[in-house]
Records
---
Amino acid sequence: MEYINLFVKSIFVDNMVFAYFLGMCSYLAVSKNVKTATGLGAAVIFVLLCTLPINYLINGFLTNNPFGVDLGFLSLIIFIATIAAFTQIVEMVVEKFAPALYGQLGIYLPLIAVNCAILGGSLFMQQREFANVGEAATYALGSGLGWFLAIVCLAAIRERLQYSKVPAALKGIGITFITVGLMAMAFMTFMGISL
Amino acid sequence: MDAKIKETLLNPIFKGNPITVLVLGICSSLAVTVELKGALVMAVSVIIVTGLANLILSLLRNTIPNRVRIIVQLVVVAMLVILVDEILKAFAYPVEKQLSVYIGLIITNCIVMGRIEAFALGNKPFASLLDGLANGAGYGLILVIVAFFRELLGSGTLLGIRIIPESFYEAGYMNNGLVILPPMALILIGCIIWVQRSIQKDLQEK
């Protein structure tokens, strides 16, 4: 039950984009059409789901290691190293074994290394002090899905926006910001839900 | 040369502002603007990190092999961010707690990486330092504008000092609770972009 609660909460209530503004840069840049948005969203779910448990275990080792020294201050640099190394490996594996998928995702995979949603996920995991790897993985899957949902929704809205009359100075990025703001307001109705 | 330095310093503040024109570094900027104090601390941290990261990587630019440059950049930036984080923990603990994960997220702030890639790797150290500082300042400016409105309208205070007098509240004035919540940060930035593009027509998208 706790897992389901954490899962639902991380998708809707603590949505990465609408509640914490994580991964905003690629969120705004890559949401022009639904197809590429879906690809990037899927890649984010996958990388989050893999790096967050790894970082959870590393963090446990750093703060409670056999040397008896608290190495917590190193966590930032080690998290980003794990993420960068992991995306590199995924890129190589995908390129070798699934060239078609690589063609579709190609440019987004390296971008993920500097996507704040991934590092943010690890930092929130550290801050919330999850009890075990299962919880960390559930949180990763939930927040990844939340990000996926947000980017696909925005891409769909932006496809429609192309046909509407927007004030000249607000065209493009301006109206996108306001749209995301309104979507965030809609998502706030989920606040306080717990199972 | 003098004109060039001036251009390097002034361009990122308004004409080529990293947030409103290049749309970089939005991630960590929106959440820290509930109060002016947090926004100022964040702005100073980012100015220091972008300036120093640009300087260091510009000094190293001829020794880094091209293939591993991203990881070298990440390591340098992460080191600077850890230093900033530790200093804040030591001297301004409450603010550090309030900014929570967003200090750590300066590492993945696109402005830092973007300026290193676009400027520091091809320019002399001094110019790179100025470019980094100016871009950090352009980012900080937007942060401070957004935080100013959010704190003033949301809590009636600035830097924790009450601006809207008590008598207003007695006359029925109420703080706008919505401004404190996340969505309004996005809408405020949208409005800033609107104002800027109405003044600078050449930035408008077709």
---
Amino acid sequence: MSEKYELNKNLAQMLKGGVIMDVSTPEQARIAEGAGACAVMALERIPADIRAAGGVSRMSDPKLIKEIQGAVSIPVMAKVRIGHFMEARILQAIEIDYIDESEVLSPTDEYHIDKREFAVPFVCGAKNLGEALRRIQEGASMIRTKGEAGTGDVVQAVRHMRQMMGEIRALTVKSKDELYDAAKQLAVPFALVEYVAENGRLPVVMFSAGGVATPADAALMMHLGAEGVFVGSGIFKSGDPQKRAAAIVQAVANYNDAKLLAEISENLGEAMVGINEHEIQVLMAERGI
Amino acid sequence: MKIGVLALQGAFAEHVQMLKSLGVEAVEIRQRRDFVPDMRGVILPGGESTVMGMLLHKLGLFEPLRKALVAGLPAFGTCAGLILMAKESEDSPRRHLCVLDVTLRRHGFGRQINSFKTEGEFAGCGQIPLVFIRGPYITGVGAGVEVLASAKNRIVAVRQKNLLGTAFHPELTPDSRVHEYFLNMCSGAG
């Protein structure tokens, strides 16, 4: 692997134990940074609003992203459509710290971006081990389980994390001859399967995303195997974004201490209303597999 | 020997792993109650200094940690950990523990696209790998601060009595010499 790829995986290591927050203005970015975000995702509309608006959803205006870069000192990420390598080149040109090739935007292509062509790092969504390893093979240096963005319902984040961790654990007890077949079933190179089997984890950092709305949700995802969480609509669609954001940051840092979680969950104001599973019209997680 | 590793956010697991490989007991500090007196030293890892700074205050760790460092507890800060210890930052109004008499530029080496790896001489230990991830560099040092390493003509490692700070990440490489240097400080040997 190239030195650049190692450095890009290293940045994800620095984000571990942290919360990456969706922001759509420089002011929101400052609030997120002040509340303890380890990075922000700059986008014109947060996923809940993308859902509500419908239509084609694209990369955000570079001007907005640059304003957000100017507003905070933490890493700034931004989303491109699946397969849209020109949007990715544009983000690289403005020196974005991380590109999210995201199912939350409208997909552009059957193929994902060849991420090895880029100097800046990519994070990609996955709802199972096969998707994760295919994205890593394409050059992703960080994975987030997909969940279902903009719903405020953690059920799908849980489902995808359980699926991922279950598949990883299953590989660790397979014999070598069984691993060859696992690589075939997963449609990924054997070397990646072998790595997961030997180490009991992905070769890159894995966060949880898509539906986290409360400190308890965030702590739950950490227990299930996440190394950090993305919170999108859950913060700026809630009654008191600053307070909720800081509470979620603390919940991730001390996810094992239920007493402390009880204290920080107090009096956070209204959580985002959310959408139940059977009410969802567009399943974003089905995009890009 | 027991060494504490601040485990609020960032790459603390990598430091714990490195300490274990050197046969040292590593204890994660997530709360006030984890910060116990029998620690011989403490590591402040890489990550985001704004996150760790905020959590140090929220969890009541800030003052106990600051007092311990002032009183002479050996501490090793990498990247964000160095920023937490520094007295001055040229490009940010944020201050944290303010115990290490240096001025730095928090993102002196630029954004992620400028992150780099090189090699350099460290404190008489020979050439070591230097990994910089959105790293800071030091622009000024006070009296009593020893410069231990430079990269691209910038100061990237310093020591002031019990405090060791590096702008790079030795915990991301298999080379353990910087950690061994710190453990010598903790055991009173160096």
